[in-house]
Design brief:
heterotrimer, A alpha+beta, B mainly alpha, C mainly alpha, B: mainly alpha, MetI-like fold, globular, C: mainly alpha, two-stranded antiparallel sheet, 4 strands
């Protein structure tokens, strides 16, 4: 028993000691100085490799770390010069030539050249990179054919340089040749996966770590970026610390010296972070908090280029009858949903494409204009389709992924259909990945879905439902629709918008989708945070942000509606301006 | 003693292997894959991704490569058909592989970063749960039937009745907003761990109090306790040296499941307090179908539970000399 | 020969005691608090069972509003009109009860004595209806854990040796399985065959729930029982009884079982809340009971959402917490009472 006692004493001492040591280790490197500003980024980014990004968390980091040919003006949302100081288009609209500015450096000191852009765009198209957004560049001549012609080993069989119309003529000239004229090419070029990567840094990484370079080259100690900020430290699921990149061409206009990007998915926690001043900007608030946030000066809901709708499995009876689909589309109380469920002031929508593009009218679901009349029409349509008290419609399953508002919206709609149309609607809730899988295999009746614009053009919505498109997931394949889209691709403005509107009209007559509303992004922005402007893509670059000094804060508050409630700001009272802005204000 | 330890460690290894195999197969048969997303990649891209993570290999081969110790890919040792640049690979060579969800990180990195944090949180939660729970239980047992006993029991019940996320919400409201003395969430100093460990430990403190009370009451009623009193031993000695040892038995038995429960409860607490621990990896890897990370966390978890059980058995045996380490009857 | 038989009979008679079970019931009745707890639980069970009969609003009828309605005191508004019989798919018995309720109470329903949630659903009604789901989950899982766990642990403890090793290592292995995957796996597998299963055995997602929860809770029970059995096995009065010639089955029935039962019952009363919390935990992750059904776990999640610094809808927390708390308190008190009553040493000083 002596050995047992020894072991026990040893164990009872050793285990807590090890744990305390571990705690010590984990906490010692933990705290560092507060950054100038911080914001919540949602989930931990899956990758800091810009070509492999998939969602908003990755996009926001790319905006901070990299800069592409053009960036979005924070106020207007229009493309303004980024790495490209000027550009020109050929007369036929098929060739774009960009002049890359001189003097902008990577974080390792090398200059950013057109070769870096060519390298990055080739990388994006190459299937071996595993880029989800490779199709952004399928408008380039030869790109799609090159990317899809792969050999046994998964590599493209032909060379890039001689087959795809993307060339770096010299260090400062970048030329892109298109399949057909794309008037909105600049809007496309703003997209995050189109930023450059340092060719020499990546090739060095591949040589140094042939097996592990993907894991090594994005680490802070090896990371080479060209944007307003550089990577200092990355703590997974905690925060990413960024610091101002002095070699950036516009470094003088960047106000924050350090910036923290927090990874936290729980909305209530994020709200707490904001309310205690830990973060300056929050992009999503819990729905239950919205009624109490209304009227505060920092609550800024803004329309978003995202569409919420239901996919309909058009292959499955009774939904294969377009009259049934139309009846269901008419019998949704969109205003009620926007007011009472989502609460953020979403706009009820009768179309797929949000009405937020300049010059876009698009099409809408044909309806009477009053819900009561629409319901009458719906009932009539069901009778026409052969369903009534003697032959009721079979139960319809509303399929959705397990998230709070999804469930609520589907409950309300199911309830409404039951009351107004006498339809039995069941709810079917699935975990996210299973939900995607079921949608892909068309194992659903009606599935709650959404689509966010990849770039600022209506085609990004309409292309989703092209015949044979991977992302359609409705079983709907209409050759007329495909033709219209093809014509639109080759057309130039303003005919292009007209053709796309025609396509949308067809979509809204055949109804493989039931439109519901346009998203609103519910941001909370510290009143002292300057340089922040709402835009339909919710695309924000921290380069433009700064802290307003007291005088400016008072000035901006003076312009507010008197009904708006002021809230306390957690930013520095003296403000924090970029060096250039300081000089401008001092000289005034 | 050494034989006992070796035998238990062998069993632990076997358990880990069994759990790893079952989990490996289970994960790959759950619907939905790691690359499924709202906006699908093209077929060629997906094929490349699957190849990169060896998901196109037959399951047995994936498992063999995962376990190691030899690298089975094209860079493996010559006798397995590779080019010899990278002989070793797999868990037995210390490599848990690249994460499928976080493409910039290896599972080793992720676990090394998150484990000390979860360990610290769990340790803190259990420590104060034990301290408060055992004390409350002893007091309750000694003052049985009094108002204090009833009050303690009601508090304990409240601790068990509320889910830890509700307790967390109340704590945050009280100590980060009403009296703003602690940070609301996040990680960075010992102060960030106070509220999470309180929320995490509360239900266990309540359980431990109940178990201690019951165990103490049973022990206090035993004949040999009466003997001890009759012999004239001071009451405090009776309680601490004799009754406590026997009365704490159920608590020791409970430590195993309690530690496992702390690991479970930490999933929710880590999410609410934005703590970058292993718990969040556990949930997220399952929901994201990140097979490598999920396997890594599973293996770690299993090994931890086995070691904890071993410790619990040893402590139990040493506290109660009647229980031999190995049952030799 | 006859002398030996007589002796044996006399020893048996001396060692035998009056049935512990009858004595236990008497002790319990004498124990006031425990008896009150038992009565309370019986009341809750009956209320839960006859929920469709009570004049409560529908637990799922929506009345969309911006904010939840605060509780209305019963003396301000006791009964109102406007009952809408909306429920999920109910069994035939429940449908009959609903019909009976409409016959008796018409369209009268209680006012929102405990307030409503943000979709206008009455909280009192949701608590009562939620108790059905939650108590069913609790009881089924507990029964599973009792049957499987006690047997497993007792066998491991009594037999000992190699068998004990194997049984306990299996428990360890099962304990270490990543339960999240098992839950997702079971749920998605069943989802795939939902229609067929529903038609043949009436299995639905909820039943998977019960199975999964039962699968995890028997493990702890087995371990606790084994620990207790080991202690008892080596204790003196067992040794003494063996010396006196008592045989194992009799030992088990008269001595081991009542002693083990004590800790088992206390553990049961502790595991029901744990099961309910596990259910709420799964609901938090979105893997729990499906809408429109309601359970206390879902109510807990809704309640937790309501605790935020912008404004406290306290009733959404207090209501479910009070319900769960009082039931658990009653279970605990009853558990203590049962343990005291079943104690073969006849109560403590």
């Amino acid at each position: 028993m002596r050995s047992a006692r020894l072991l026990r004493r040893f164990g009872l001492v050793l285990v807590p000691a090890v744990l305390i040591a571990a705690a010590g280790v984990s906490l010692s490197g933990a705290s560092f100085e507060r950054a100038d500003a911080a914001f919540c980024n949602g989930a931990e980014p899956s990758s800091l490799d810009p070509q492999q990004g998939t969602g908003m968390p990755e996009t926001r980091l790319v905006r901070a770390l990299y800069e592409g040919l053009v960036v979005s003006d924070p106020r207007t949302g229009m493309p303004i010069p980024g790495m490209a100081e000027s550009w020109s288009t050929s007369a036929d609209g098929l060739t774009w030539t960009f002049r890359i500015r001189a003097g902008s450096r990577w974080t390792d000191g090398a200059e950013v050249t057109a070769h870096d852009f060519a390298f990055a765009w080739e990388r994006l198209l190459d299937p071996r990179t595993g880029a989800q957004y490779a199709d952004l560049l399928f408008v380039v001549r030869g790109a799609r054919a090159w990317a899809e012609d792969v050999g046994e080993d998964g590599a493209p069989t032909r060379t890039f340089a001689s087959n795809v119309a993307i060339t770096a003529l010299d260090a400062r000239t970048f030329v892109v040749g298109l399949e057909h004229p794309v008037d909105h090419f600049l809007a496309l070029a703003v997209a995050a996966p189109l930023v450059p990567v340092s060719r020499h840094a990546l090739e060095a990484a591949r040589a140094r770590w042939p097996d592990r370079w993907q894991v090594e080259w994005t680490k802070p100690e090896h990371s080479v970026t060209n944007g307003p900020f550089r990577l200092v430290e990355r703590r997974i699921n905690d925060r990413i610390r960024l610091a101002k990149h002095e070699g950036y061409w516009d470094a003088d206009e960047v106000a924050f010296r350090t910036l923290d990007v927090l990874a936290s998915e729980h909305l209530a926690t994020n709200l707490n972070f904001y309310l205690t001043g830990e973060v300056a900007y929050l992009d999503e608030v819990p729905v239950s908090a919205i009624p109490r946030l209304r009227g505060r000066e920092d609550y800024r809901p803004a329309p978003y280029l995202g569409s919420s709708f239901f996919r309909v499995n058009v292959a499955k009876p009774p939904l294969d009858d377009v009259r049934v689909r139309r009846a269901l589309a008419l019998a949704i109380d969109r205003q009620e949903i926007a007011d009472k469920i989502t609460k953020a002031g979403e706009l009820p929508s009768f179309s797929l494409v949000p009405k937020l593009f300049a010059g876009w009218t698009g099409a809408e679901l044909r309806r009477s204009g009053s819900l009561a009349d629409d319901l009458d029409e719906a009932r009539q349509l069901l009778t026409e389709a052969g369903y009534g008290p003697t032959r009721p419609l079979p139960p319809i399953e509303l399929h959705f992924a397990s998230q709070a508002t999804n469930k609520d919206v589907c409950e309300v709609i199911a309830d409404f259909w039951r009351k107004e149309l006498g339809i039995t609607a069941r709810l079917r809730n699935q975990e996210w990945k299973v939900y995607l899988d079921a949608q892909r295999r068309l194992e659903y009746d009606i599935s709650r879905s959404s689509w966010i614009a990849d770039f600022a053009d209506p085609a990004t919505f309409l292309e989703v439902f092209a015949p044979g498109a991977d992302n359609s997931r409705t079983g709907w394949s209409d050759a007329r629709y495909g033709d219209l889209l093809e014509r639109a691709r080759r057309a130039r403005e303003p005919e292009r918008f007209a053709i796309l509107a025609e396509a949308e009209a067809l979509l809204l007559t055949e109804l493989p989708i039931l439109p519901v509303y346009t998203f609103t992004v519910t941001s909370l922005v510290d009143p002292r945070l300057g340089g922040f402007h709402a835009n339909p893509l919710d695309d924000h670059c921290p380069k433009f942000w700064y802290w307003k000094p007291d005088a400016e804060l008072a000035e901006s508050r003076a312009g507010n509606d008197p009904a708006i409630r002021e809230v306390e700001s957690h930013g520095p009272r003296e403000g924090l301006l970029s060096p250039a802005e300081q000089r401008r204000r001092a000289s005034r | 003693m050494t034989r006992f330890l070796l035998r238990r460690l062998a069993w632990a290894a076997l358990t880990v292997l069994a759990v790893a195999s079952i989990s490996f197969v289970l994960m790959r048969n759950v619907r939905g894959g790691p690359f499924d997303s709202e906006r699908r990649a093209s077929a060629a891209v997906e094929k490349n991704l699957r190849e990169r993570y060896r998901l196109d290999w037959p399951t047995w081969k994936q498992f063999a490569a995962y376990v190691g110790p030899f690298e089975l890919g094209e860079h493996g040792p010559a006798f397995l058909g590779g080019d010899g640049t990278d002989t070793f690979g797999g868990v037995l060579a210390g490599d848990f592989g690249p994460s499928l969800q976080y493409r910039d990180a290896s599972v080793n990195d992720l676990l090394a970063q998150s484990l000390p944090i979860s360990a610290a949180l769990g340790f803190l939660a259990l420590s104060w749960a034990l301290a408060v729970g055992i004390t409350a239980g002893i007091v309750s047992a000694l003052r049985r039937g009094t108002t204090l006993d009833v009050a303690l029991r009601i508090t304990a019940t409240t601790g068990i009745a509320l889910p830890n996320f509700a307790i967390a919400g109340v704590l945050v409201l009280l100590f980060a907003f009403v009296w703003p003395i602690l940070p609301v969430a996040g990680h960075g100093s010992w102060r960030h761990l106070v509220l999470p460990s309180l929320a995490l430990g509360a239900p266990f403190a309540a359980y431990i109090a109940r178990l201690t009370r019951t165990g103490m009451l049973e022990a206090l009623g035993e004949d040999w306790i009466r003997t001890a009193h009759a012999k004239g031993l001071p009451p405090r000695l009776v309680v601490t040296r004799h009754a406590l040892r026997a009365g704490i038995q159920p608590v020791i038995s409970y430590l195993g499941p309690a530690a496992a429960g702390v690991l479970t409860g930490s999933l929710v607490i880590e999410r609410i307090f934005a703590i970058p621990g292993t718990g969040s990896h556990f949930v997220n890897s399952a929901l994201n179908r990140d097979y490598a990370l999920a396997m890594g966390v599973t293996i770690l978890y299993t090994a931890l539970v086995c070691v904890l059980n071993l410790l619990v058995d040893v402590v139990q045996a040493s506290l109660d000399p009647r229980i031999a380490l190995e049952d030799e009857s | 020969m006859k002398r030996q038989r007589d002796d044996a009979a006399r020893i048996d008679a001396a060692l035998a005691s009056p049935s512990p079970w009858r004595r236990a019931w008497e002790d319990l009745r004498a124990n006031r608090p425990a008896f009150v707890a038992l009565a309370f639980l019986a009341l809750v069970a009956i209320g839960s069972l006859f929920a469709p009969l009570l004049p409560l609003p529908s637990p799922i009828a929506l009345d969309l509003r911006d904010e939840p309605l605060a509780p209305i005191a019963p003396w301000t508004s006791f009964i109102v009109h406007g009952f809408e019989p909306e429920y999920w798919n109910l069994s035939a018995v429940d449908e009959a009860l609903v019909a009976l309720r409409r016959a008796i109470f018409g369209d009268l329903q209680t006012a929102a004595w405990l307030g409503t949630d943000s979709k206008g659903r009455d909280l009192l009604s949701r608590i009562v209806w939620g108790s059905r789901t939650s108590l069913a989950v609790g009881m089924l899982a507990t029964l599973t854990s009792l049957l499987v766990g006690v047997t497993w642990g007792a066998v491991a403890g009594l037999v000992g040796g190699r068998v004990d090793q194997i049984l306990m290592r299996i428990v360890d292995a099962l304990y270490s399985l990543p339960f999240i995957f098992v839950v997702i796996f079971l749920i998605t597998v069943i989802d795939g065959w939902r229609e067929e299963l529903a038609a043949t055995i009436g299995l639905e997602r909820e039943s998977i729930f019960y199975v999964t929860i039962g699968l995890f809770y028997w493990l702890t029970m087995a371990r606790v029982v084994r620990g207790q059995v080991l202690q008892l096995k080596n204790s003196e009065f067992i040794a003494a009884a063996r010396l006196a010639g008592a045989r194992t089955p009799w030992l088990v029935r008269v001595h081991v079982l009542p002693n083990v039962l004590g800790i088992v019952i206390v553990y049961l009363t502790l595991s029901i809340p744990s099961i309910l919390l596990f259910e709420s935990f799964l609901s938090f992750l979105g893997l729990g009971i499906e809408a429109p059904k309601v359970s206390w776990g879902l109510l807990a999640v809704d309640g937790a959402d309501a605790i935020n610094p912008l404004g406290l809808d306290w009733w959404l927390v207090i209501g479910p917490a009070a319900a769960m708390g009082s039931v658990l308190l009653a279970l605990n008190v009853l558990g203590d009472g049962l343990r005291d009553a079943l104690d073969p040493k006849g109560g403590r000083g």
